[in-house]
Structures are given as C-alpha cells and as structure tokens.
Amino acid sequence: MDEIEQAARAIRDGNLVVYPTETVYGLGADALDPNAIDAVFDAKRRAREKPVSLAVPDVESALSYVRPTERERKFMREFLPGPVTVLCEKRDVVPDVLTAGKPRVGVRIPDHERALELLEHVAPITSTSANVSGHTSVTRVADLDTEIEDAAAIIIDGGETGGTGSTVVNVERGEIVRRGELADEIEAWLTAETAEE
Question: What is the pTM of this model?
C-alpha cells in the first residue's frame, strides 16, 4: 500500500495526516467527523471559535457539502484548483464544530499533485495549516511543530511548498477576508464582476 493510500486509510479511521499543498503543509482529518475535527483543534491548540476549511478534489464534489451561488460557482471555475479558499453556504452534512457554528464553510481545492491524489481517495478533509496556532506556517516537513508530528498518523513529504497561505474570499460580499496568493487577481475579478451586475 503506498503512502497516499495509507494516509487515506488513516483519515477514514479518524486519524490526522500532514499533507503538502501548493502553499503550506496542511493538517488533514475527516471534515465530516466531529471527533476528528476536535483532534485537529487540539493538535493546533486552535480556539474553537475559529472555523476550519475543508478540501475537496474538484468543484463538482464540493457541491455535496456547500450550496454555492451562481457567482461563487463562476469564481470557483476561474480560480480552483489554486491557492484560494472560497466561503460558501454549508450543507447540513458539514458539522458545526468545523465552521464554529457559522453558516459558511471555506472550500479549498489545492493545486498540488499529492494533495489532489489524497483527495481522490478521501474527501472532504480539513484544510488548515499544519502548525500550532500562532506559530509560523510550515513549508518543509523538517520544520513541523513536535505537537503536530506527534498528533499525525502519517506525514506525506512533498518537498518544499510555496510558502504563502491561501487567499480567503467571500465572493457574495465581494471581499477578501485574508490576503494571500493571487489576491490582486482575485480583487480585479471581484471588481469586474460587480461592475457587470
């Protein structure tokens, strides 16, 4: 069994996995399993009121977990896969613990071969940086916090990653919640879309 299959099995069993993306390393768990999500918050020492995003392999599969508007779908087709997280209305299947009780959840489709391979095997998984909250995001497995290493059943080493976190966008409001990769292009797209309406 190869590393990706082992990681997918670990996630299905409720365990945590560290995986590479085109931005930084992520901490993956079953995004529909409240216990696994709890384990992610614990490993990161992350405040429960801070939501965590979910990752899927393609826009089509995202539709099982979110109800995107036409504008959000158009945006997703334009920018995903890529270093972007899109906030969409969540479906009931997505646990409140993931979204901190909020009605929207971040959707991420990483533009990274290993991440997408993992997501083809198991999805949705949590999409949050593999670091203790307040510590720097990790671009190399060698730099992982000990707590994260200890918490992960499997660590997929994809070499050095891009380094800047994803840009988080509320497309409906036309606002960038967190600037990261492609922020300028996204801003231009949002402005052009608003002008068209």
Answer: 0.96
The domain of 59 spans 3-164
197 located within any domain: no
- The answer as to whether 36 is a domain residue is yes
The number of domains in the chain is 1
In this predicted structure, what is the pLDDT of residue 195? Answer: 83
pLDDT tens column, 31-43: 999 999 999 999 9
Instruction: Indicate whether 50 belongs to any domain.
Output: yes
Quote the pLDDT of residue 71: 96
Mean pLDDT computed over 23-37: 98
End-to-end CA distance of the chain: 51
Q: Which residues contact 158 (CB under 8 A, 6 or more apart)?
A: 19, 20, 25, 112, 114, 115
Residue 160 lies in a domain: yes
Q: Vertex 176, ends 174 and 181: CA angle to 5°?
A: 130
Q: What is the phi/psi pair of residue 134, to 5°?
A: 95, -20
